[in-house]
Amino acid sequence: MNGLSRRLAGYLGATAALLAGWFALSALIDSPALPSPVVALPEFVSQASALLPEAGVSLWRVVAAMAWGTALAVPLGLGLGRSARADAIFAPIVFLTYPVPKVVFLPVFLVLLGLGDAPKIALIGFIVFFQVLVTARDAAKAVPEASVLSVRSLGASRMDIARYVVVPAAMPDIFTALRIGTGTAIAVLFLAESIAGTDGLGWYIVDAWGRIDYPAMFAGIIAMALLGVVLYEALDAVEARVTRWRRLSR
Amino acid sequence: MNALELTGVTLTYEGSGRGVRALDALVMSVEQGEPVSVIGPSGCGKSTMLLVSAGLLTPDEGEVLAAGRRLTGVRRETALILQDYGLLPWKTVWDNAALGLRVRGASRKEAGEVALGALERVGLLEFARAYPGELSGGMRQRLALARAVALDADLLLMDEPLSALDALTREDLQDVLLDLWRRRGHAQVLVTHSIEEAVYLGRRVLVMSPRPGRIAAVVENAEMGEAGFRSSALFHERCVWLRSLLAGEGALHPGASAGDSDVTYAESTASTGGVV
Fold first, then answer.
1. Nearest CB to B90; choose among A154, A156, A168
2. For residue B163, what pLDDT band results from cuts at 50, 70 and 90?
3. How many Å separate Cα A31 from the centre of its chain?
4. Structural domain count, chain A
5. Which of B56, B95, B103, B129 to probe the A interface (max A CBs under 10 A)?
6. Is A135 part of any domain?
7. pLDDT confidence of A1, banded at 50, 70, 90?
8. Which residues of chain B does A151 touch, with a Cβ-Cβ cutoff of 8 Å?
9. Is A31 a member of any domain?
């Protein structure tokens, strides 16, 4: 496909530019903490067998967290957006808690849920939940009233309106929230894994740092960056399928 | 038995501060199979009248009968077409046409088949798999009509359905509407801002007063639908007559505030021409 090859070319160009910048910067700084890509990339390849299981653990944590956060936030947010009564009760709670940085609860989660997957999945899901909740609520509020009215005139029930109007209308906004959410999710994942536990890419990076093995640390950083790119692209692909009508309309 | 009958319908919108009375003891009726046009100044309650007739708004006072039965909600055999067509951009043309049947419990297969027939009737069959966003304004309007046709409605309510179209497409769609009515024989209420459209598509033209809306005058237009009516002297005459009636309602008076319920513009008989 033409679109795909153009996209690939874009990625290749961007990668080359980034590598060149990295190379120049490491030469300029000349510190073992910032190894040149010439060192870090071969290290990344040779560490692949050690990195892969850690990447798998990290990927599972992010995906599971985003899944539960989204699965709860979408129906709740859409419901709040469409019900003035529920919104009047719950919106103040949401607005009070939304600006609170959820990551500060990491110690609480660690104490309550131990050092394994559970506290990480809980914390990241918690953060994604709030981002998607607020977006879904606003998107449901912004659904064109004419669309609702026209479907109601066909005899639609509240469920029909949710299914045919509110959910599809809110989809683009929800995907935007999710794509932005991946960045936050991976940042929090790094923090959570680096503070507690003995697996995952975050742990791998901090562990290499502790051993002053900077090339290995950078191999972990590259893996974490790739994890973000893969997630972002996967969401983009799903979004393109689900909201096909948007691309065709312009 | 009339297709639609409104008796003493009064409706007040509860706005911030004071309520706005949109309809005041409105009385109107539409016979079975009769096409009626409704025209009046902006904000006279025409759209409210349609929403009440569709069962989407409940009047504070008065009664609405559809096919002899008191209306308590949305009625199966009534189709409503709104100004912006009410299409869902995320559904294909085909799914949009089938939506009414799906909502009313038809299976996907059955709804799909009926919808295809309706799309063929309005000349959109080859666009069945496109999305509304890919269609021109006139084609979108055809799609809105196809949805009503698919429902096999005996009462078609339309709120300025052609107002967003350019003049030529508009005439084309007026002919589509006329053709559909001729073939299906449904009762219809067409709310419009265009004098020519009201006369072309209404066997009776109801003139509404400024808010709160009542029927101020009725133009009998029995020759509507006859071949060559649009270019006849009679058509022109009716338009001139309707225009003078509208001027009497303050709809054409320059600087008249349409929302003013105080009708002091009645003396004005000046025919200023143009579309309201």
1. A168
2. confident
3. 32
4. 1
5. B103
6. yes
7. low
8. 86, 88, 99, 103
9. no
